[in-house]
């Protein structure tokens, strides 16, 4: 790791802390940059060195490339880890760092550019013989786009070419208002990504989302770390991920993972990347996109392979060769990640805010919590509603499910509404247990997944609320004992 | 001593008594023998008719947050006396539309003096990357529109109000 | 798990909580029995059902078989998990449970009896062709014992036949005061174990302690879960354990593990057991003893194999067959356990007492803490000084060492002196890092392992102590600002 | 304001000053500009001459416990004034042997009036399964023996005392 002297962590929340932990254990100095609203955040407390950044909004501060370059100059950091989100997949950022002679811990700017655009990525992958779904690309011939979309076949998924995170995506089930939906999609693309170009592809009914973790070094070595199943999504965003996927046979697993490494090799990928696939109930899979960064859900892969992917990223960025081969990377046991979000699942996942009055994380065999919050912290709308991630390992899937449920029940987060009980409900669902899910599962089962309180639970809750209500208890205590006893006796 | 506890959309009136050092809670027509034992900071054993549950409890000005049986529940505390005295003014009267959380105005779809029907979209707002429509809760005439497109607002900000209904 | 309806945990501290966690995740009702001094302990808080026991001393309460039988009757528990220590290796206890129709989660009473006696165990193992060290057994012919001990060759280790935990063990380097040492050993054996019979064996200089985790079911299936290296000991008690052992070649590993399974099969072992070996620097290994219970250090095995050994114990006790074969049990990555003890390593490991004013456990990838204490708890001399166990996993040994060190540094335990900094020192030692250790390592390196404070650290400590001294700060604050300024100005 | 801080067997005299809102600590002949920022309950950033360390601090009547740079240190606080007034009576005078922690007496190897030499074993005790010998710290005559074999004792119990030395 000679080449990397000091790493600036250009991110916040749980991922900043997770990266810092690897740096600390590896003995590499790390700098945590932060906006003042994150002043009391765990990563800022744990860091030996911090750097305050400013911006018009907190998000803008983290997105400001100049801030990061200045932080590197001031602190002497010669490498930057971007985490995920923010500037992690920003080619100009990667370029700016290269020009400033700072190591970007991620792939080259060219690869980010190529794979960051869904349209060019897809063309590239298709041209090299990897499977892609029937599709239409608007900019091939804008005039005939609506017509070509209709030919892809319904249902069809229309999405911004520059998009991500499910934003601006729409499914159209027939041709009746196709033109209108295309127009809406364009407006949303412009609003969210300042880019109205669209892309349409066959919508696979009840598809699964399966992705493969790949790695490449600067010496032409490429490996995969097996797959992750990420079909449990609400509003097109993953909230439960697991590995291995319960859908794949060993042959299918081999096939999809081999395709992913092939794509990584074709683009000359360096560092950690993820190739996402749509997996049809019939067993076919199609390239969806490539994420040129560390994923939120990377810990499940760490749990079953034993590798520290952030450490491996550092090694590759320092120019070292992978010191293992594909055969060394074994998948042992099962792992599930749950994203703990400040939101009300029973109110259409409305984001929740407030002060975290009490936080108590689950502990025990196979349990890992990657958290970005601590007791006393305010949860605001300034950032994403994800507070932390619960990652659980067990020898087999069934044991992993029950361990995860117990951990969710043991996770105390008071003061802000979170989705822990909702996640527990999902894990209790017979279709989840049998592995029979798809990306529309949560929407389809919304009614079944609602919370309910038994009479018995209600009695306990009301009792707890009454007995911890100081004002109420004081008022009651003022009744003289004797008088109260008489009243009681008279009954 | 009475309290009204609100969980989600349900409201529960309870009455707490203490006699011979023991607490009793009246819930509807049932009386529960209850007891709390603090076993740590904000950590309790709660006893109801002799059965036990462990609970974590946190309290702020308005709510009691309880983690019990593996899930967290928020209970709003209402003092029936205060309720009678204070009324519910700006809130819940169906005349004032308050922001559920801080956010940004995407578009304003009405103007003061305009006649609107129940369900009409008055405003579109965005909070935490989610778009929400602010719809008229009843038929009426728009009184105030306090923000323009692009404005940001705080939680509980008065976004739009309707003229009070004639009684 | 049909046969097991409810499990009584007949233990306390970290192991009671660890067992409870597996029960909870598996959905099996568990009962935690406790003496009143343990009233606020984590396991008692976490339990859905508890049972108060009494005794002349707290330890006596946990050792009282009648207490446990009564607890089973009252709570309806039809199985007992003994943990380790207390009654875990007590044959009469196993018998008493069997007679009361309660399942003992452990091997049969016969096997406990056979292997619990060092002398009979050794004879049994030797007779079946497994390697044992040259030795002399007193009761073979008490009159000639001293003579026969001398023939074993010096240095020789003399220990109580009924012993364990290093108590009453002594090494004699020459024949000069052999008779006297034998007499002393006998007295200690009588005092500690009410059994003065002795046993002597060749003392291997600089030996390693390597043990193998074995498992058997009620259907004649036997497997091992690989080895653990437990050479880091102070006062004959393990404080750091790891797996794989850095000493073994793949062939030696196979050989020692195969011998262990062979011994388990020879005794018809059921459930979890450990075969301990002395491993000489020259590569020979000798049977030392068999522990017929779950070991304190079992978690390192769980980390590298993925299995929950407590869960597997339950399955075997319920009469189920092992549902895996030896080939399924792979050893992936590396794991280290550190025993966190209330003791002053710089004062000859004197036990420490006090109130735990602040507890903050380390978290992060690969980190597991099995703890029996919480903030606010009093640490007394009533029980063993072990407060908790830090178990760390990483892909390789080097990464595991640095991760463990970081976790030790992140482990905040204030109010009671603990050995975390001492453990960190051991892990920093170049001989530990190169794996070149033996059971006498800590004693040999005592001077190197002492703590020291740099001038810089001292400045920070004194500053922190001064600024958090309310009385001191208040007194200083009383000096009027103006006067203080003048004083400052006059300097 | 002065304090004596004791870490292990070392004692440090410090002087805390506050001027213009800033704290200074005199340690020996050096003066440090120091500052504490509480960032959580018992969690601080400590600044010494501009450098920063994070510290967890807990305090009881006698000691300050600090976790810093990855290790915990216990610091005994002594108010120099109290020390002068109170003397160290039972403790440290070399005449009274106090129990370092609760335990049991294994054997008593001396009796009142007996002349002993430095290092003579006066008693054998057991605490937390460890045997310790209580040895005479100096030559002298045994004054009191307060326990018999099998007795249990509390921390700081006076086990054996020697007659005061003639001055």
Describe this structure in words.
- The complex is a heterotetramer, with 2 copies of chain A (491 residues) and 2 copies of chain B (167 residues).
- With 491 residues, chain A is an alpha+beta fold.
- Chain A is built from 19 helices and 23 strands.
- With 167 residues, chain B is mostly beta strands.
- Chain B folds into 2 domains: 84 residues, 2-Layer Sandwich (Glycoprotein, Type 4 Pilin); 68 residues, OB fold (Dihydrolipoamide Acetyltransferase, E2P).
- Helix content of chain B is 4%, strand content 59%.
- Chain B is elongated and about 60 Å long.
- About 6% of the residues of chain B have low confidence.
- Chains in contact: A-B, A-C, A-D, B-C, C-D.
Report the portion of residues of chain B in β strands.
over 45%
Assigned CATH class of the largest domain in chain A:
Alpha Beta
User: So what's the oligomer here?
Assistant: heterotetramer
Biggest sheet details of chain A: 8 strands, antiparallel
User: What does the overall shape of chain B look like?
Assistant: elongated
Number-wise, the strands of chain B total 16
Low-confidence stretches of chain A are 483-491
Low-pLDDT segments, ≥5 res of chain B: 84-93
**CATH fold call of the largest domain in chain B:** Glycoprotein, Type 4 Pilin
Percent of residues in helices of chain B comes to under 10%
Let me know the average pLDDT of chain A.
93
User: Structural class, from secondary structure content of chain A?
Assistant: alpha+beta
Task: Report, as a whole number of angstroms, the end-to-end distance of chain B.
Answer: 34 Å
The CATH homologous superfamily of the largest domain in chain A is named: ATP-grasp fold, B domain
Order of strands across the widest beta sheet of chain A?
14-13-10-11-12-15-22-20
Q: Average pLDDT value of chain B?
A: 85
Domain module count of chain A: 4
């Amino acid at each position: 790791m000679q080449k990397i002297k000091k790493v600036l962590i250009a991110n916040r929340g749980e991922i900043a802390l997770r990266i810092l932990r690897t740096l600390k254990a590896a003995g590499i100095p790390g700098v945590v940059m932060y906006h003042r609203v994150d002043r009391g955040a765990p990563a800022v407390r744990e860091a030996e060195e911090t750097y305050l950044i400013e911006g018009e909004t907190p998000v803008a501060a983290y997105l400001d490339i100049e801030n990061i370059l200045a932080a590197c100059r001031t602190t002497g950091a010669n490498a930057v880890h971007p985490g995920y989100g923010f500037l992690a997949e920003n080619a100009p950022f990667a370029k700016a760092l290269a020009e400033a002679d700072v190591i970007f811990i991620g792939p080259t700017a060219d690869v980010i550019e190529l794979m960051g655009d869904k349209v060019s990525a897809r063309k590239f992958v298709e041209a090299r013989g990897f499977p892609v779904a029937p599709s239409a690309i608007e900019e091939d011939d804008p005039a005939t786009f609506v017509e070509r979309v209709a030919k892809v076949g319904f249902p069809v998924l229309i999405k911004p070419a520059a998009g991500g995170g499910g934003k601006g995506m729409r499914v159209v089930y027939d041709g009746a208002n196709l033109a209108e939906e295309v127009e809406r999609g364009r407006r949303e693309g412009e609003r969210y990504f300042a880019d109205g170009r669209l892309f349409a592809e066959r919508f696979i009914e009840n598809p699964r989302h399966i992705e493969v973790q790949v790695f490449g070094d600067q010496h032409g070595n490429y490996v995969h770390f097996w797959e992750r199943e990420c079909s449990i999504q609400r509003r097109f965003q993953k909230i439960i991920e697991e590995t291995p996927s319960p859908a794949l046979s060993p042959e299918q697993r081999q096939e999809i993972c081999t395709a992913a490494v092939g794509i990584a090799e074709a683009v000359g990928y360096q560092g950690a990347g993820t190739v996402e696939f749509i997996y049809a109930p019939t067993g076919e899979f199609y390239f969806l996109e490539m994420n040129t960064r560390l994923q939120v859900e990377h810990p499940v892969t760490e749990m079953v392979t034993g590798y520290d992917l952030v450490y491996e990223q550092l090694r590759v960025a320092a120019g070292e060769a992978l010191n293992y081969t594909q055969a060394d990377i074994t998948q042992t046991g099962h792992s599930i990640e749950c994203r703990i979000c400040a939101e009300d699942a029973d109110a259409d996942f409305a984001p929740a805010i407030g002060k975290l009055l009490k936080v108590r994380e689950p502990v025990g065999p196979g349990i890992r919590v990657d958290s970005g919050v601590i007791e006393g912290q305010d949860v605001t709308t300034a950032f994403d509603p994800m507070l932390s991630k619960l990652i659980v390992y067990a020898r087999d899937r069934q044991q992993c499910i029950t361990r995860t449920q117990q951990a969710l029940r043991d996770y105390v987060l008071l003061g802000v509404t979170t989705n822990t009980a909702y996640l527990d409900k999902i894990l209790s669902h017979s279709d989840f247990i049998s592995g029979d899910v798809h990306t529309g599962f949560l929407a389809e089962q919304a009614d079944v997944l609602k919370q309910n309180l038994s009479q018995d639970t209600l009695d306990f809750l009301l009792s707890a609320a009454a007995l911890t209500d100081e004002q109420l208890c004081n008022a009651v205590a003022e009744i003289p004992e004797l008088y109260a006893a008489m009243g009681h006796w008279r009954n | 001593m009475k309290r009204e506890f609100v969980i989600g959309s349900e409201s529960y009136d309870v009455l707490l008594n203490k006699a011979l050092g023991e607490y009793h809670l009246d819930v509807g027509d049932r009386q529960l023998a209850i007891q709390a034992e603090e076993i740590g900071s904000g950590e309790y054993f709660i006893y109801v008719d002799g059965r036990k549950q462990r609970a974590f409890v946190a309290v702020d000005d308005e709510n009691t947050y309880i983690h019990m049986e593996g899930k967290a529940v928020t209970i709003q505390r209402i003092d029936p006396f205060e309720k009678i005295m204070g009324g519910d003014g700006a809130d819940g009267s169906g005349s004032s539309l308050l922001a559920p959380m801080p956010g940004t105005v995407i578009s304003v779809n009405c103007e003061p003096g305009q006649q609107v029907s129940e369900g009409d979209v008055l405003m579109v707002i965005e909070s935490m990357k989610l778009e929400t429509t602010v719809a008229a809760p009843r038929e009426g005439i728009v009184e105030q529109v306090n923000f323009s497109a692009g404005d940001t607002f705080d939680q509980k900000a008065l976004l739009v109000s309707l003229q009070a209904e004639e009684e």
